[in-house]
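notes to self, project folder thing:

trying the whole complex as one job this time. last attempt i did each chain seperately and stitching them together was a nightmare. two parts in total, labels are on each line so i dont mix them up again. if this works i'll redo the older ones the same way
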Amino acid sequence: MDLQKYIDDSKKIVESTFTKYIDKNKDLYPKLKESMTYSFMAGGKRLRPALMFLCYELSGKDKKDIAAAACSIEMIHSYSLIHDDLPAMDDDDLRRGKPTNHKVFGEGMAILAGDALLTDAFNLFLSINNKAKNENKIKALQILSLRAGSVGMVGGQAVDLEYENFNLKIKSKKKMEKILNYIHQHKTADMIMASCEIGSILSGDIENQKNISLFAQKIGLCFQIVDDILDVIADKKKLGKSGSDSKNKKLTFVSLYGLQKAKDIADKVYKEAFFALKKIKGKREKLDLLKEMTEFILRRDF
Amino acid sequence: MDLQKYIDDSKKIVESTFTKYIDKNKDLYPKLKESMTYSFMAGGKRLRPALMFLCYELSGKDKKDIAAAACSIEMIHSYSLIHDDLPAMDDDDLRRGKPTNHKVFGEGMAILAGDALLTDAFNLFLSINNKAKNENKIKALQILSLRAGSVGMVGGQAVDLEYENFNLKIKSKKKMEKILNYIHQHKTADMIMASCEIGSILSGDIENQKNISLFAQKIGLCFQIVDDILDVIADKKKLGKSGSDSKNKKLTFVSLYGLQKAKDIADKVYKEAFFALKKIKGKREKLDLLKEMTEFILRRDF
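result (full assembly):
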């Protein structure tokens, strides 16, 4: 199976799981449903679910077992984008080439749609009907809430927000590096780690877990560095967002190190991801896909 | 044991559980921690945890077993108040006599503190170390995420937001009544139901669950009607908030039915709560406290 087909299949599973979930409850207020659906269905490659599926299928199991868990990680990703785009945060008008949620539904409804996607993600997760032990489901949920919470993604966002309009002159470069690593680890890498870790935990695999975590951390970090680079150099239309990082004078790998050094760091972390990947065991076909996937995620053109 | 002591004990357990949880992770960004703690520790009687504890202890078990679950319901309550006070929502400057979270930490940080309290609530919940079966923990978490999510509390908030500045003239009264019931059921009653239901589920009690749900729904509804009444007539200083319902021309029992009829409805639902309570079985001492608690919650002076 080639990677594109795997990604397409994953996307279909995730989107039909969401549609089924959101259509199920007739009591859901239509405008809230519309706002949640607008952002969830706004496109995106669904890379986190695909990673979760691959890490699950290393064990030989079938990804459909954990459709609910994969959809829930994407719901959390989706909520984080809605809140991140708000005027009080990044203040973005466009996301994937479309008006952001608050531009369409208003700020209040956008906040609530984010809150609902986050809460419902846990609700949906709990409905997974694979044969994972309850113990493993609980362990996977602990990882999910840890990586998404105050010392995970939200923590990364908070520090990111604080260091808008940062001024390099008044801080030591060393301190800035520490802050930047905190932001990228938590804001981006944590949820990519959660995706891979949860796939592995739900498969009942214990042997791989440490290496899966390390591998996922590396692709998460590299992904964010690449994003920083693209934010500066990519064709804005092609990326479908408005390059708000430089507008907000955010702390990024490019603003701290300059473009060339940022590219060098991306390259280094890219190699570390592959080094970690080599230690992961499982079905050969799925390992190959995971390798291709890593290349796909990290080698975006610049 | 008298009720006041029970409430004080519950409050102590919940607050020390929160402090332990939030202090545990050294990696938590200080300003985010401060913002979360500011709102969580802003006072409040912790009625939801006390209700959860009482419903748990009906079975003869000890409330300390489920401290984490009780704390998590209060964290969700706390997050909902932070987001509800935001300029894009109710736009309140004061909460319990203190400046609201966004007034102190800024809107961006307030949104994130809410997101973090919500996510961490699930994380903390999963750490309960009572001897409840994993199956019951999962069932309790399903209830928590359902009652807090898109067809629960967030749904109620969304409809509440939509019917600000409502105009009775352009809608039928029947439709307005339906909307008002939706708001009050979901915005307020759902989390009170969750509190009682989770206490009961974690105790392993099956027999009581239907009656506990009904009882909790009634106190939840009555609580909100009383709140609507107090928002209009109570001494604003005493309540410690600024009476934003009438400022925002919200749909409430008072704005829809007038003060006297709202009081009559409160009285009717109050009686229904007691009727439901009579069918609940368990330790006599705890049933008496639950009865006193119901009187305490619903008979605020007006």
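what i see at first glance: The mean pLDDT of chain A is 91.
need to look closer tmrw
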